[in-house]
Amino acid sequence: MAAVKSYAAVDLGASSGRVMVGRAGPDALELAEAHRFPNRPVRTPEGLRWDILALYAGVLDGLRACGRVDSVGIDSWAVDYGLLDADGALLGNPVHYRDTRTEGVAEKVWASVPAPELYAATGLQYAPFNTLYQLAAAQGTAQLAQARRLLLIPDLLTYWLTGEQGTELTNASTTQLIDPRTRGWAYDVAARTGVDLELFAPLRQPGDPAGLLRPEVLEETGLAGPVPVTAVGSHDTASAVAAVPAAAGRFAYICTGTWSLAGLELDAPVLTEESRAANFTNELGLDGTVRYLRNIMGLWLLQECVRAWGDPDLGALLREAAGVPALRSVVDAGDAVFLAPGRMPERIAEACRASGQPVPGTPGETTRCILDSLALAHRRAVEDAQRLADHPVDVVYVVGGGTRNALLCQLTADACGLPVVAGPTEAAALGNVLVQARAHGLAGDLADMRRLLVRTQPLTRYEPRGDTARWQEAEARLAVR
What we know:
Blueprint: E1 5-12, E2 16-25, E3 28-38, E4 42-44, E5 47-49, H1 52-66, E6 71-75, E7 81-84, H2 105-112, H3 115-122, H4 131-138, H5 142-146, E8 149-152, H6 153-162, E9 167-168, H7 169-172, E10 178-179, E11 184-185, H8 187-193, E12 203-204, E13 209-212, H9 215-221, E14 228-230, H10 236-242, E15 251-256, E16 260-266, H11 273-277, E17 281-284, E18 290-296, H12 300-308, H13 314-322, H14 344-354, H15 363-389, E19 395-400, H16 406-416, E20 420-422, H17 427-439, H18 446-456, E21 460-462, H19 469-479
Parallel strand pairs: 1-6, 9-12, 15-19, 19-20
Antiparallel strand pairs: 1-2, 2-3, 4-5, 7-8, 10-11, 13-14, 15-16, 16-18, 17-18, 20-21
Helix pairs in contact: 2-4, 10-17, 13-15, 15-16
């Protein structure tokens, strides 16, 4: 019987972190939660910051709860980073991507590299918080002047665990400083925008060794060394897409959570001007793949409303939403007006009022507006991706936290007019585990990994109901705002 090994998957999201223990082998894949902890950003006089020390403490607590493991891998959200001085010490808490410092910065960057040229060189969609814009906003600050190393969030935590520095490629591809054709640095973009690429540690591939847990970490966690840390798809979306349980290539995926990332897995980037205008991004995935996708605001809209309402029971809220007439009111779930925290129910009401639609009057009506709007945004992204990449699909896979929301999954099937297969929920952690297992010889190529997921993970299929004409009508309402 082939060996089954245990892997710690550290999976950090924008609102919570978790350390999962995966047991994996050629015919086995199990996942259990060892520790979950909140990720609470802090608003300081300087702006919105990540509490990186609390996150690191959560990681250590999680590793302590894991018991014996054969490897550790870390994935997280993208674009954000920590700066280190010449001694390797962190220069302040990392800035949160929702901080306001990048407002108006993109236009300054485009003065050096016009937006069409920037897209043709990097393939990255416009988002105000891309690392490139964050670095442009930081130019002239004492902190950046003092910095000798920049580490993206998973690489920073890996450095604290091992003492070794690297820049994992899938996450690096979200910086807008990587050429998706060469899968290396975009040197011309960096030179023209004043970014010193010497700040970045050498690039790592998913599956590369990333060091051993330091003796101090072994002592604090109670783990028996040596314990290797393995580079995984450290952008959580890269790990989640690796865990899409697809049997063939004609599929779209939607990674759901705080954000919805909807798109296709391709062999080459799409760098056309039409693609740029549609705000699609080309991020790098496992085994030479490209994650061609659009960022959608996602369940952030509902999370912020639930917070504003005093955290009511989510199940009751969804049941109430299911009884609200479909597509009564919709908003553009990709609109940057919803990016900042606070007053989300009021902002959704204002958007409905401005577009001449009925204004949601209860939490259930607002929830239904959000879910209908997300399904509509999913439909738009899946249709646009197929057209722009000339890559038709037969099925949509939904992975991540949104798989628990049966109403959203069914509405997505209805809107897209395609079957939706939902699961796994902990896709990022499973992708993290599978890359570690493959690095240790216990999993095959990407297709083999996905076949293992199909055999071992619970999946739910949703068939589309009705026709898509009513969704087209709702789309038209947004188009004439």
